[in-house]
Amino acid sequence: MPDPPESPETADLTSVSVQPGGPTCGKIRPPGSKSLTNRALICAAMASGQSVLSGTLRSEDTAVMIDSLRTCGVSINVSQAGRMIQVDASTRDVNSDAPHELFIANSGTSIRFLTAALSAAGGNYHLSGVERMHQRPIADLVDALAGVQIGSIQTQSPGGCPPVAISSRGWSDQPVSVGGSVSSQYLSGLMMAAPIALQTRRAKAGRDASTDNIRIEVIGELVSRPYVEMTASVMRSFGASVAIEDVAPDAVDSVSLRVVVSGDGYHGIEYAIEPDASAASYFWAAAAITGGEVTVLGLTPDAMQGDVGFCRVLEKMGCTFTSDAEGMTISGRASRGIDVDMNQISDTVQTLAVVALFADGPTRVRGVAHNRFKETDRIGDLACELRKLGARIEEHDDGLTIHPPERGVTPATLETYHDHRMAMSLSLAGLAAEGVRVLNPSCTGKTYPEFFADLETLIGRPHRWC
């Protein structure tokens, strides 16, 4: 079981200052996508036969997922420094009443995907994490599961937050409905769980696989839609049938989207993971901040990950965007502020905010109210740190407006709030400003342990550690 992160009082006191030094130019291939790795792990762990996943991400979030699946009896062999994972689901605990205690740290994908998957598979489970995890809402997902699960499921912290206790015998025949305004991961979790529920149901009742299906309806707004399409793509690769229907995209209190899942469950396959597009955003931003040119290898505009759309945002700010079979390239400085809806690529908001510090004119970010419920409050806490750098920030219900510092970015020591994306994005300000110091840089281990080493290689000069 992974050790829980240290408390703020005893956390890693190391800090890092990225050093300025002219335009950033070069090529880089980020590690595998966290989102794809954890989705593929869920499907492989519940599949018939063995799976081999290549290009996978080695990080705290994926280690948490692997450790939890092993606790459930799944055989998982990790090799090639975490870039290859072999999964054998035949050893998974089935029809066992034994309790399974799962420690999820602060991995949102892990707790949401596992809660849904294990509810569908049946059994007894208790999922808990660090203090911040017990402040992150999961009630919409648990409420959705409570309406269909045979057995009991409940949250154990105020406000419908983890830990989550599950005692399940699978799902009933009832359709599933879930809110979509807080996190698309609730819907993704339910989608990936549906083939598992169908398998469990058929094993107990001998149903005809050709006619059985599960219908999932989203009530109101759905945030981060590209991640739902990604989920469907991964599921189809593992043999599930998934149909997505837009019902009323602007609905507030009624059904906006419907997903129908059918087929005879997941099947073991060989599956290759794309480089992480959210991680790529930091390197594209490095070019945009310094007026350089950076190519991210292994990604194209038609990648499964919606965050490749970050390049189009930088293009609107004045950068040049090109792509070919090798990868995607950003060149030139992001010279102007923009007004942009980031709902579909909300994991790149912090990256954009730092780029906006060096633009001419304000940048208004919209459509990301759900960012307050991530690893930290990625609106309020982000605003606090940007102000330290001299920017004037207006907070809004759905985002923020960044007014660049009138006299340039000021030296500052910046908090990361144990949020990997805060650390990686805020550190980029040091590419074009002196004295920017980021605390607790080791929190990047959640999704990208080698980030600062890779950035150092790209810019060709050492960071300053203290």
- Using DSSP, what is the number of strands? 24
Flag low-confidence runs.
Answer: 1-11
Distance between the termini: 30 Å
> How is the biggest beta sheet arranged?
4 strands, mixed
Quaternary structure = single chain
Count of individual helical segments: 12
What is the average of the pLDDT values?
A: 94
- Cα-based radius of gyration, to the nearest Å: 22 Å
Strand portion: 25-35%
Query: How much helical structure, as a percent, in the residues?
Result: 25-40%
Structural class comes to alpha/beta
Shape: globular
**Spatial strand order of the main sheet:** 22-23-1-24
Give a concise summary.
The protein has 12 helices and 24 strands. It has helices spanning 34-45, 60-71, 108-121, 139-146, 184-205, 225-237, 277-290, 310-316, 349-356, 380-388, 420-427, 451-459, and strands at 15-17, 25-28, 50-54, 75-79, 84-88, 99-103, 123-128, 149-157, 161-171, 176-179, 213-219, 241-246, 255-262, 270-272, 293-297, 320-323, 327-331, 339-341, 363-366, 392-396, 399-403, 412-414, 436-439, 464-465.
